[in-house]
Amino acid sequence: MAQAVQASIGDSEFDRDTAVTLRAPGVYDAELSPGWTIIRAVNGGYLLALLGRALGDALPHADPFTITAHYLSASRPGPAEIRTETVRTGRTLSTGQASLLQRDEDGTEVERIRVLATYGDLDTLHGEVRTSARPPAMPPYEQCAGTGDGPPPPFSGSSAIMDRLAIRLDPATVGWVVGAPSGKGETRGWFGLADGRDHDPLSLLLAVDALPPTSFDLGLSGWTPTVELTVHVRCRPAPGPLRIAIATRNLAGGFLEEDAEVWDSADRLVAQSRQLAKAPR
Amino acid sequence: MAQAVQASIGDSEFDRDTAVTLRAPGVYDAELSPGWTIIRAVNGGYLLALLGRALGDALPHADPFTITAHYLSASRPGPAEIRTETVRTGRTLSTGQASLLQRDEDGTEVERIRVLATYGDLDTLHGEVRTSARPPAMPPYEQCAGTGDGPPPPFSGSSAIMDRLAIRLDPATVGWVVGAPSGKGETRGWFGLADGRDHDPLSLLLAVDALPPTSFDLGLSGWTPTVELTVHVRCRPAPGPLRIAIATRNLAGGFLEEDAEVWDSADRLVAQSRQLAKAPR
Predict the structure, then answer these.
(1) pLDDT tens, B1-53?
(2) What proportion of chain B, given as a percentage, has pLDDT over 90?
(3) CA distance A119 to A121
(4) Model confidence pLDDT, tens digit, residues B193-223
(5) In this prediction, what percent of chain A has a pLDDT beyond 70?
(6) DSSP B281
(7) What is the pTM of this model?
(8) B131 close contact with A: CB closer than 8 A
(9) Beta strand A186-193 pairing with A165-169
(10) Given B88, B131, B276, which is nearest A66 (Cβ)?
């Protein structure tokens, strides 16, 4: 049996599904793939990666350092347009803005997402590393729960994205699967892409929004739509699976925050994110 | 002696210095006050509050829920223009964008700051409060260090903003004043406005950027200019001083993050912020 060629950065499902095509100065065509949906929603991290790719092309600097998205209305699989604006260019940093637009059934153009971001070159960051944060305490990969283990997810509808991700969850954070949430509001897991592609700054944007919501671990059911998501990409990730630790500490007034830390195989804290989401009703 | 009238929300230095005047649809005039500078830099939180006030006027919803600013170039005391754009309006949330512009000496218009934010009405948030975060462990107000105590700040130049703030710092986080930083990268303190004005959502935007930088507690000297700052305002603050706890856990590659939590007198976590800043050279 011929050995399957492992996907690589630039040649993978993720790259094909986040590809953008320049159509006019600063304007890109994209196709939102149905492959990255959870239930009917196109995953917010996938969308951020798509927008991130467009901005990286439009700006003089290639890597998102800090990127914020406001999710205005639900995106749908299908054609989309990304309009970018260069806000400022500098020697080491550039700032840009981007909008993701789609047409409704009646042809009306609707803005789905607006992004504001500052980009740089991660390969020029040579300052000392004095990270006092520590990787999450979590069982090794083999002892974490794969999505094939245990009961099916407690929600109906497409989980197409799950076919594209290689996730193993810390058992301490998935009690909700059997009706026993810990109540702590935490999600932890190992994260990779199913086709074996290594991570890069853009897949980090997917990673911070690709684990089950912490609301499940709080004993809440129902979705937590993201209002805003901000990601800091601090380091190019080393090859191999990422460890992601997500926590909610301020569920209040119908909203909650999710803080994610993403660690690579070299124990670097490669990305930090925070999102504001609506709590389930 | 006549008793001085205490400032109140709407009638205070902070309100006067963050006032905006509508000049054309979505366009506001503002005056950046020299009273909110530290050394020569106009404080980033003060600028965010100014922009936040303009957006609150421009949008159908008055309170910033999540607001992100990218600081593009150094603002200077003097006239400024704020241009707002309404991105989306909804029943409970609205999203807007704003730019702060000034003219250089040769008359060229330069964008200083760009903001993207989603606003709502804090008074409509009635969901349960299940905040697992806890207020910072810190000495009571009287046992914290006022800016009048101890040696003068280890930096020269104007500290005009210090005259407008009533800050008391946790002694455990100001060892740097006497050359003995803890190395933990933390700042904690009690925070109020010098004229006694109570806090509101806009002064929270000032508060998250108004304490000494955590870099001092890391033993670094020199400034840490903010690249991007995102604030979540989660609750209208109760009257009385705020407690602010700031921490840096990922100083790496010439950048650092500062995470701030702001607690009010009712022990509510009223705001959370994260900024990405350049580490001192």
Answers:
(1) 445 678 999 999 999 999 999 999 999 999 999 999 988 899 999 999 999 99
(2) 90
(3) 7
(4) 999 999 999 999 999 999 999 999 999 998 8
(5) 94
(6) -
(7) 0.97
(8) yes
(9) antiparallel
(10) B276
Interchain proximity B250–A272, CB inside 8 Å: yes
Read out DSSP for chain B? Answer: -PPPPPPBTTBSHHHHHT-EEEEETTEEEEEE-GGGEETTEEPHHHHHHHHHHHHHHHSSS-EEEEEEEEE-S---SEEEEEEEEEEEE-SS-EEEEEEEEEE-TTS-EEEEEEEEEEEE-GGG--S-EEE---PPP---GGGSEETTSSSPPSS-S--GGGGTEEEEE-GGG-GGGGT---SS-EEEEEEEETT-PPP-HHHHHHHTT-SPPHHHHTT--S---EEEEEEEE-SPPPSS-EEEEEE--EEETTEEEEEEEEE-TTS-EEEEEEEEEEPP-
Quote the minimal CA–CA distance from A13 to chain B in Å: 31
Tokens of A133: 């944060």
Query: Cβ separation of B254 and A125 shorter than 8 Å?
Result: yes
Tell me: ipTM over 0.90.
yes
Please, which residues 63-82 of chain B have a Cβ atom closer than 8 Å to chain A? 65-66, 68, 70, 72-73
What pLDDT does A1 receive? 46
The band of A152, judged by pLDDT with boundaries at 50, 70 and 90, is: low
For residue range B94-112, what is the model confidence (pLDDT) as tens digits? 999 999 999 999 999 999 9
From the list A72, A116, A252, the residue facing B129 with the nearest CB is: A252
